[in-house]
Amino acid sequence: MRKNIVAGNWKMNMTYQDGLALVSEITNMVADETLAANVEVVLAPPAPFLHSIGKLLVAGGPIHLGAQNCHQKESGAYTGEVSAKQLHSVGVEYVILGHSERRQYFREDDELLSQKLKAVLAAGLKPIFCIGESLETREADETFEYLAAQLQNGLFHLSNEEFAQVVVAYEPIWAIGTGKTATSQQAQEVHAFIREQIARAYDAEAALNTTILYGGSANAQNARELFSQPDVDGGLIGGASLKSRDFTEIIKSF
Ligand code: 13P
Fold this sequence. Notes:
It contains twelve helices and eight strands. With about 250 residues, the chain is of the alpha/beta class. It has one domain (about 5-250): Aldolase class I (TIM Barrel). The structure holds 1,3-dihydroxyacetonephosphate. Homodimer.
């Protein structure tokens, strides 16, 4: 059966010192509350902090390490880039791919994301693959066609075995960092649609086993309602993952 996951995407926030303090607070709270039984927690700090933060996390414990991006090649002359293999070597387990900020600001398209997915899987890491529509697309009533195409072109080229490693995140662009969350009905409707698409592309079992996260202004106040939806298996949290109390409240929302 699929896992529930709450993942914190720090984006380009926090200094190293602030990050260490945050991790230590989260680690204490997660341990105190012994909440971890039915939730896997993922922290995705900026790349320079990964190694040290990874060392603070207990192996086999509830908190896992994630990266926010990686390069599609295994190694070589790609100044400034980090490979999936390198991430794996410092204890990373998950890699966020296809975030709308990377699609928009770094022109990442389906072709490039396909290569990155392959690289992440080849390194033994699990992709958190993001999809989501803009406000324009939603208002034009084209959300479902748009998401179906993102899944088809970006993700469904994977084999059954590869796809079994994937976590999908639905992040409507209009909800990211705007304080405007999708209603739980909107989230459920899309998540059920994504699961249906997975069943068509693979099979019913793959669809049942895939964790589908919601992201976009999720916070301590709305997480419980969102996570109570049958097809919402957790969240990919931006702003609220930078405050230990808020993030822990979200984890407790299951
Ligand atoms: P916010 O939670 O800040 O809206 O960000 C969501 C997000 O983009 C997570 O990847």
